[in-house]
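Example 9 (inverse folding). The structure is encoded as follows.
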């Protein structure tokens, strides 16, 4: 996944990056790999990695590395997308689109 730098999220949040994904990371107290433009996020879940990407038309797509859970889901809010990805990576439950 090009453009992601490990630890970039902590730097971006400390420097006051105003992207919704950076704000969601800060608000949720999480650390992940955030792309320099703030549109791609990778997090370590309990069992699998989680990916969240900002859509060009608004909203967020989320998925994880679990072969049984690779369905991409759409969420309107960055926090909801992160939370959905974390739940799916933790217990493999399929989530409904919000």
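The amino acid assigned to each position is listed next.
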């Amino acid at each position: 996944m090009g453009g992601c730098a490990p630890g970039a999220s902590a730097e971006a949040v400390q420097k006051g990056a105003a992207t919704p994904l950076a704000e969601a990371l800060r608000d949720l107290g999480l650390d992940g790999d955030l792309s320099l433009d703030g549109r791609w996020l990778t997090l370590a879940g309990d069992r699998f990695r989680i990916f969240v990407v900002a859509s060009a038309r608004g909203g967020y797509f989320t998925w994880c590395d679990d072969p049984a859970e690779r369905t991409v889901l759409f969420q309107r809010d960055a926090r909801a997308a992160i939370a959905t990805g974390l739940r799916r990576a933790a217990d493999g439950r399929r989530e409904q689109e919000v």
